[in-house]
Here is the input.
Amino acid sequence: MSPSRRKPEVRPLEILEAAFHEFGEHGLAGARLDDIARRANVAKGTIYLYFPNKDALFREMIHSTIIESLASAETTMASADDEDTEALLRLLATRWWHLLRTPRMRTLLRLVQGELHRFPDLMAFYADSVTARGRRLAASIVERGIARGEFRDTDPVIAARMFQGLWLSHAMWTEHAALFGLPDTDDTVLAELLDFFLTALRRPTA
Amino acid sequence: MSPSRRKPEVRPLEILEAAFHEFGEHGLAGARLDDIARRANVAKGTIYLYFPNKDALFREMIHSTIIESLASAETTMASADDEDTEALLRLLATRWWHLLRTPRMRTLLRLVQGELHRFPDLMAFYADSVTARGRRLAASIVERGIARGEFRDTDPVIAARMFQGLWLSHAMWTEHAALFGLPDTDDTVLAELLDFFLTALRRPTA
DNA sequence: GTTGTAACTGACTGGTCAGTCAGTTAAAAT
DNA sequence: ATTTTAACTGACTGACCAGTCAGTTACAAC
Here is the structure.
């Protein structure tokens, strides 16, 4: 095929996008560069103009996907500074729920779990920029609720971790909802999560 | 090397054990049969006396690991039928916590997450025999607590799911405890989990 | 002992795939 | 128009590895 009229520097992005699909489907070792190339409408050699080898491509793909998901989280999470902290938490929780169940996020999570233990620096980057950041945000809201007397007096960071664990695990399960005994509609799951989490957080009925 | 004096039918087990290590470390596509053979002190050909191909070996390995973990769960969970349901739950939770953080369980969980989506029948088997079974057990305890008036009146199955999500996610995180901002000792994490979960479950202070 | 046989070996094969590079082409520079 | 540049191509290579099989060895049967 004749070289497609080159677009300036979108090439690497197209390749990364294709890499995301193939690595996401088959894992690092299972994915083939020929398939990535084909999906990106590019010859295999072109990949090597932008990435030194398969591992590096994988790394860059993960890295950029994390960056991207951070950006999308940032725009999604822009908080309406409501009066009611519970409402604020519900808002955050709902948006997080939808974000986590994005195909993109699902794939990222699977790769983080399944492949990232061989890339400790990437794991650290993920833990720091995604998990820790999210936890801080959640903790700050919990803290606000405590300060205003809406929530029970607990460690906000611990509560935030519980929140993440609950949301994360259930989001993973929704991919096989029937198998794992989840309700039919994902909104019901969210409602259950919120109900449970808020019960743990609210002050005992005085 | 001369053929090691053959033991009767432990061979497949040795091979499965070696397969567990290699697949656990490198994934299905990344693991090499030569390495599995070497680890099992066996020539590569021997593997093919017991398993038709790599995929089948992987399947069998997963299958037998699930079976094995069920057995170990069963012996571990044999419930002391305490008076106090909370104590019973604490006992179950503690044992579950230790079980989940076993290297063997960790690896199994990673493989389930990372590779099993291409083996739907195995995923179903896992979901059914491990997840669902555990959930039923937890739910039955919660139900007992509700019946005896110790716990708040909630759906026991939902509570059991929350329990699993909490324990599972935190167990995964403990593998990189520092990265994910967990306390230094895993026992502290367990205490936090129990504290949070039981707070959600106990009746509001009357 | 001798024979039978099933477990086991490991060199070999054929296919696959990461990575290379000499050549081609679109577009910018002059 | 012509030259220069750099993006791009895809056939090729060499390594690697799943799977094979002719031959070997430990043990059992007699």
User: Anything to note?
Assistant: Chain B has a mean pLDDT of 93. The longest helix of chain B spans residues 120-147. Chain B touches chain A through 47 residues (CB under 8 Å). Chain B is about 75% helix and 0% strand.
